[in-house]
Design goal:
heterodimer, A: 137 residues, alpha+beta, Heat Shock Protein 90, five-stranded antiparallel sheet, 38% helix, 28% strand, B: 427 residues, alpha/beta, Alpha-Beta Plaits, Rossmann fold, 3-methyladenine DNA Glycosylase II, Chain A, domain 3, 3 domains, 15 helices, 11 strands, binds adenosine-5'-triphosphate, binds iron/sulfur cluster, binds magnesium ion
């Protein structure tokens, strides 16, 4: 089953609404709390990144019999050094984002910790695609 | 099945959309022109009582006469009771008045709250680094987590409530020679009424009845103003009394890293963020469903913020020292693990639930998406959910119905067009 979301990059207060919608669906499907929690965290972090670093984008969520796949695509500035971005504590967040409590550089490390597979493809000046997988079993 | 305290006065309900729109768990529908509460989803948070313009919702509690069934009657008042009078009236005097209403003894829930404060501090110390932990004292919040945030169940502190502990201690103090002992909670809270009937975390509640503050307040005020002699009955300090309002429990811990949130929608936002892993910097989270905390409970009469300020004054006058010898430390842990409630689940079988969700999605796409509430459900989405659960039919949506009528009409016109003779023409 698939769900599609357009994530607006201007309104920070809306950031996280797609992930909270998915969380409700997973609860309705009766998935184990641990899976719901992991999916909520990874999707929330990736959605926020898309808003604060890339000006929004689109999210597609596939709920399959054995796993959940979340694909986030944006046309933002891209990530020059992905290994560096994955390091805990590394952040290029703007002052505005920092004032709102983002920018600890913990998002990507948290996504890695709570997912079963994480892939980032990015081209500077073109955009970033993040693909995250959480196993159901 | 959960049996809630909040009930509808059918004759007063005009079938509007106020309560269905504001219920935090979407537990209310309007059917046949009357509001209907889906018990299994109800938190007893009292939100619908607050928003109903027709006063058609009430929180049911036990009548005062319930105490007549017992030989020895003990009142255990919630700390929020002290909000009925300003701090020039001592807690001793309020308790004396309460006793005069027909009780043999009174035991403050505030005293039990101090013990829980002590034990919570120990718990937080022993579990350092695993938090943040959520207080279990508000039963509406505990149910909210069970119903809507099952992944956070493990973060609730597994302790019985101050009410339950007070009931235990009061019964112990009464001993065995007084015949049939009854303990009655003097309550601001609808959810507590249900908690003692649905004790999901203990075999059986020690509380024998729940009497609403609103039902005794007028009589109690009269006694307080009378020439009744004040007895020395109070023992709780400001720490326990403070529990009657939001922030009291958190501040009682005298620790850093605490946060307190009141009101059901604020509580939901906070749990949402907690579930996203966003607010892990705290050790302890106090959540109260009612505005201002228990002083704003649906069975109170005083303005919650007036009562809150009175409780704060009392905190200052009574001093903030946790009782030194509050009796032997009992085991206050839950005897059963808290279970997730399955009422949000579409079906127990994952594949079947998935099929239902697909259908739900398709149905939702045919609905106007304006959440008008005319179908009796709070949103188009929840209406679609009701349809796949077999609780509603799609033609209850007036937009769908209109479309159907138009289709039918067009078909009839077409039928009329293909009639072999246009009798009206050549005549
Ligand atoms: N979609 C994206 N587009 C462009 N850059 C990104 C994107 N996602 C992450 N980055 C880069 O990777 C860095 C690290 O991301 P990460 O989520 O770990 O931390 P953060 O977002 O800066 O802070 P936090 O997530 O703790 O609030 C970001 O600061 C940013 O430079
Ligand atoms: S805040 Fe207090 S009165 Fe309100 S539901 Fe919770 S425990 Fe009951
Ligand atoms: Mg981030």
């Amino acid at each position: 089953m698939e769900f599609h979301f357009d994530v607006c990059g201007e309104d920070y207060s809306l950031a996280g609404s797609a992930s909270s919608m998915i969380k409700k669906k997973l609860n309705q499907l009766g998935l184990p709390p641990l899976i719901v929690r992991k999916t909520a965290i990874v999707m929330y972090e990736a959605e926020i990144n898309m808003v604060i670093h890339a000006g929004g984008g689109v999210v597609d969520v596939h709920i399959n019999p054995d796993d959940i796949r979340i694909i986030l695509k944006d046309e933002g500035p891209g990530i020059p050094d992905i290994d560096r971005a994955m390091e805990a504590g590394y952040s290029t967040a703007s002052d505005k984002a920092r004032e709102l409590g983002f920018g600890a550089g913990m998002g990507l490390p948290n996504i890695r910790k709570n997912s079963d597979d994480l892939r980032i493809e990015s081209k500077v000046g073109e955009g970033t695609t993040v693909t995250i997988m959480v196993k159901l079993k | 099945m959960y049996k809630q305290s909040v009930q509808l006065i059918v004759d007063k309900c005009i079938g509007c959309t106020n309560c269905i729109k504001r219920c935090p768990t979407e537990a209310i529908r309007v059917q046949n022109g009357k509001a209907l509460i889906i018990s299994d989803r109800c938190l007893d948070c009292g939100e619908c009582i607050r928003v109903c313009q027709s006063n058609a919702k009430i929180a049911v509690s036990d009548p005062m006469a319930i105490i007549d069934d017992f030989d020895y009657k003990i009142a255990i008042p919630a700390p929020s009771l002290y909000g009925i009078a300003d701090s020039s009236v001592s807690t001793d005097r309020i308790l004396t008045g309460l006793k005069h209403l027909g009780f043999d003894d009174v035991f403050e829930v505030a005293t039990a709250a101090e013990i829980i404060t002590k034990r919570t501090n120990e718990f937080l110390l022993n579990n350092e680094g695993n938090g943040p932990f959520i207080s279990s004292s508000c039963p509406a919040v505990v149910r909210l987590v069970q119903v809507s945030f099952p992944s956070l169940i493990g973060q609730i502190i597994p302790f019985i409530s101050p009410m339950e502990l007070a009931a235990r201690l009061a019964k112990e103090r009464a001993g065995n020679d007084k015949g049939k002992v009854g303990v009655f909670f003097i309550s601001p809270c609808a959810a507590k009424f249900s908690e003692i009937r649905n004790p999901h975390r203990q075999e059986k509640s020690r509380v024998d009845g729940v009497i609403g503050i609103k039902d005794i307040q007028v009589k109690l005020q009269r006694l307080i103003r009378s020439d009744m002699e004040t007895e020395k009955l109070a023992s709780a300090s400001g720490v326990g009394i403070g529990w009657g309002r939001i922030d009291g429990e958190a501040r009682a811990l005298a620790s850093d890293g605490v946060i307190s949130v009141d009101g059901i929608s604020n509580t939901i936002s906070l749990l949402e963020e907690l579930e996203n892993g966003k607010i892990n910097q705290f050790r302890f989270i106090e959540l109260m469903a009612c505005p201002g905390g228990c002083v704003g409970g649906p069975m109170t009469l005083v303005n919650p913020y007036v009562a809150k300020s009175r409780i704060m004054d009392r905190w200052d006058t009574a001093g903030a020292v946790v009782c030194e010898d509050c009796g032997p430390l009992q085991d206050i842990s839950w005897t059963e693990e808290l279970q997730a409630s399955s009422f949000m689940k579409l079906d127990d079988d994952y594949e079947k639930a998935m099929l239902m969700m697909q259908r739900l999605d398709l149905i939702e796409k045919t609905l106007p998406g304006i959440d008008c509430g005319s179908c009796g459900a709070p949103t188009c989405h929840s209406f679609a959910e009701d349809i796949v659960r077999g609780r509603a039919v799609v033609t209850s949506c007036i937009f769908v119905l209109r479309k159907k009528i138009r289709q039918l009409t067009e078909e009839m016109i077409k039928l009329e067009d293909v009639l072999p003779y246009r009798l009206d023409k050549d005549e």
